[in-house]
Amino acid sequence: MSVATSAAAAFQSNYGSDPAGLWAAPGRVNLIGEHTDYNDGFVLPFAIPQHTVAAVAPSTEPGWTVCSDLVNESVSFGTTGPGELDGWAGYVAGIVWALQDAGFDVPPARIALSSDVPLGSGLSSSAALESAVLTALVELGDIDLPVAKRPGLAQRAENVYVGAPTGIMDQSASIRCEQGRALFLDCRSLEVEQIPFDLAAEGLAILIINSNAPHQHVDGEYGARRKSCEEAARILGVPALRDVSVDELDAALAKIDDEVTRRRVRHIVTENQRVLDTVALLRAGQVREIGPLLTASHVSMRDDFEITVAQVDIAVEAALAAGAYGARMTGGGFGGCVLALVDAGRADETTAAVLRAYEDKGFTAPTIWPATAAQGARKL
């Protein structure tokens, strides 16, 4: 059963009628550019085929009711403030709150959710949920909110209502990505460029390796990294670490006494440059050549930003040993997924190598599948 069919069935089962429509929003893979988003830097995500579908219809009763076939639970709520509703339904309430806080009238609605974006894997299941619900409510209520403004509103819902200090990349990818393209996003100006990323035409594939070591963003580690970056920018007298170039890095590091903070700065500054270098190669059609940049990104996350775990490190090492052009962890870290750029004809061989490596270490087997660049949020 497809996700759309599941969402429609859940709506029928819970509300006894058909929805007015189905709206979908995808998860995302970040090709490169990790933790650069909240530093006003550059990111290069692409949407994946896995998505969340919201089946929605207007309600004659005030307030909103939402159910999910993932938790077999229904939650009703009226107008709420940040933090008043937690758990999975808090993401929906957060979207309603953010729309209302921006001055929009949000139509009362009944919502049923279904998703095949893996939870806790670093593929942004939360942004997919937010983006599907936001797209549905905007269209259902004929709300005048341009697509370019929607990611910021969804981010505000997650930052302020849910309390997760994420940047704007996830929501931007889920809402603005295009099929066969990666989204080059300047997180300061919010300017975007759709970068060609047709792997099949090059005989290539991206393998997504879900380490099955789940992470959580609403915890101390992600927030600590962000706080460290903000403190470093203050010490350096710049608005954000995006304002430090690679050429200025050594001089900047000399101004920082704390060794841990120096490592954090080095990751952000070099990672921003790696995004720019990757975009330049993709514009030139040199897809294989981005591999070393992907691997260098992982090394930086492992050694300087210290956000990897043994399972993702082993996946990267095994993929590279099997001939991958490059491999890196993707997402906020502390678990989640790895991506590996491989020849399409060697995808099975690489998959087998990673599975063997996990078995040798006694880790829970990873889940591995090929990813293609998919379409962002839309009505089905």
UniProtKB/TrEMBL annotation:
Q: Where along the sequence does the record put site: Transition state stabilizer?
A: R28
The UniProt keyword set, sorted, is: ATP-binding, Carbohydrate metabolism, Cytoplasm, Galactose metabolism, Kinase, Magnesium, Metal-binding, Nucleotide-binding, Transferase
Keyword flag Cell membrane:
no
Q: Which GO terms describe its cellular component?
A: cytosol
User: What domain of life does the native source organism fall in?
Assistant: Bacteria
Q: What is this protein's record name?
A: Galactokinase
Cellular localization per UniProt: Cytoplasm
Which organism's genome codes for this protein?
Winogradskya consettensis
- What does the record give as its pathway? Carbohydrate metabolism; galactose metabolism
**Domain GHMP kinase N-terminal per the UniProt entry, residue ranges:** 91-175
Q: Where does Mg(2+) bind?
A: S126, E158
Family indicated by similarity: Belongs to the GHMP kinase family. GalK subfamily.
Keyword RNA-binding attached: no
> Could you tell me which residue ranges the GHMP kinase C-terminal domain spans?
280-359
Q: Per its UniProt entry, what is the enzyme's top EC class, as one word?
A: transferase
